[in-house]
Amino acid sequence: MKKKYTFVKTIIIAFLALFIQQLEAQTITVNSLEDLLPYLKLDNVDVKLAPGDYSINAFDITAGKFSNPLFLFEGSDSTYDFTDVKISINTLVLTKFGNNEVNELQILGNNNVLKNLTIEDIGTTAPSDRAQSIIMDGRDNRIEGFNLTVRGSYPYGYGDAFGKGGGAVIAHNKHSGVLIRGLRNHLKDCNIISRSYGHIVFMQAASYPTIEGCYIEGEMRTTDDMLLEENTGSPADNVDFMTDWGYRLPPGYMMSLQEGGIRAYNAGTTYIDGVEIQRGTDNPTVKDCTIKNARTGVTLVHATGTKHVENVTLIGCEQGYSIGSGTVINCSGDAQYGPVLSFAYSSDKNTDIDINVLPAEGPYYNGSGTVAYIGGSAHNITLHGNDPNANLKIQVGGDKNNVRVLGEPFNQNPLTASNLVLNNQTDFPVVLDAMSSNVTGESCGEITDNGTSNNVVDCGETVTFPDPSAIYLINNPRWTARLGADGGNEVLMLAETASTTTAQWKFTPVPSESGYYYMDCVGGGDKPRVTANDGSVSIMQASTVTDDSAKWRFDLYDGDLFHITNKNDKRLRGVDTYVDIVETDSNGSYTRFSFTSMTLNTNDVVLEEDITIFPVPTSGVLNIQFRKSVSGKVELLDITGKILISSSIKNRNTTLNLSNFPTGIYIARIYSGESVSTKKIVKK
């Protein structure tokens, strides 16, 4: 009898396991919000809400149909499909949970995917306390394809002019969009429109968050328009327009009615696996996003770790990028209402920034007068693009002239700027304030230097070293010799008069690794590339080798002498008849090299005198004229050495059309017989 009972029990357990497995494998379709709620607590479910328009109003809360948060996803490893679903939430709902924070949707579980939901707040009623439309806790969750319209806050229409939080001139009840917390949570391909005061997307206690492919939008209002409320009894009028910054609201500025487009904080609380964790935000990634009309576009200054911003576009924001440290690459933005780039503190350092300045979509209303404000140290900043209709400047150090910092000095204004590199490839003028020092680089716009030991020069006067379009001889003065290669395994020491291809070197920039180059010998045959690992001598290898052993930088020692050091911190040293490898603490005369450009040889001098290039700078067609008929070709290269145009020289005239290329620095390389001439070209 006992054996029979055990057998039946086993059958029941197996049946239940099979039933659960089938339940987990199938997609469950529910037809109402009430039917959806029980599945939010379960693990390993695939749930689809039937397409349609759904609504939540204050009566639903009174009837006990929904709690706070309205939708709480507590399960893990589940997928929720809301394709063709719209949920309209009356903003009166935000007042029905007492004086408590209200969250419309929150994830607490792990490894969940929520996709394709449209949520729209209906009305303008502010929450009793504050609200967020979405909060992401837990880990490895993804919200994808959401369309979110956020409404309901008090007061609305002034941005942060009269306060943000505690101690505000006018008490605020905020309603923000998306709050990302937790670990490795991902907001992807979402459209978020805010018509409420609060952050549109922000991060607190988030570790390795990713915001990707999102369109984020607020709206703007001029301070002049706000001041028209005088004698109307509006909230601003009732405080005589006295701002939270300690002075009356000034005219002449454009302000966002929201807070940050994407913002990170250095503190917060999150919940992962039921554990409460308090920490800041670290290692955020923002890519492929567009942000319009926010108070700040991308502000990551208070995050820690690796901060990466890529392929982001900012339109009509009060302030553009401000990350403190980290990388901004392949990004763009306009300065219609404020600087496309800014820094928060003098302690900000080590940013690598490449921004294309876009023309504004409409009239400028930029009260700060700056296209970029630069503070801090050890930055490498490149600005390109242009807008001839903008009467703006690049401010390096000093006063920000921001609407929020017109009062007494404090830790965010004014700032010092020091030991940084600025490459201004725009026509905007650069003003180096008295609080700037040791700023180097070049500018295609006018330069005003009121600082100390700065060396920013006109872009037409500089020659990039190493020039990717040039060929160099590498000299070792200690041995009156030159480096060379002939297809063998090692770098050679040649006579100081050597100038054949075995002594000629070309340097190619390493993509996305500023300051590092591949070193290839023109006469190096199948092994043209210098590498160095742990051996005692340098090794010549094929040009396909691209690991760190082949990436070299040129560290200035003194005058025209450089140390040649690779990314593995191995340094070249000339020793009479051969070249060996030493560590970076070795800096004697054996390790010092100078460079002779072979861009021009004896015949080239004649060629240089016979060439006329105009107009420089050019906005379109570049004319190249020769004093006498020649045959050959002309190439246009970008600053990485990539050939953009190659054209034959016909008789005495040829042209290059740069109209479709962005503003910046280019190189024209002209060949005639054995002669080569290189000219720097500025496209404006």
UniProtKB/TrEMBL annotation:
UniProt entry tagged with the keyword Signal: yes
Domain Secretion system C-terminal sorting positions: 613-682
Signal peptide: 1-25
SUPFAM superfamilies assigned to the protein according to its UniProt record, in alphabetical order: Pectin lyase-like (SSF51126), Ricin B-like lectins (SSF50370)
Domain Right handed beta helix: 170-317
Pfam families on file: Beta_helix, Por_Secre_tail
Sorted UniProt keywords: Signal
UniProt xrefs under Gene3D superfamilies: Single-stranded right-handed beta-helix, Pectin lyase-like (2.160.20.10)
Coiled coil location: none
Signal keyword on record: yes
InterPro entries linked: Beta_helix, Pectin_lyas_fold, Pectin_lyase_fold/virulence, Ricin_B-like_lectins, Secre_tail
Protein name as it appears in the record: Putative secreted protein (Por secretion system target)
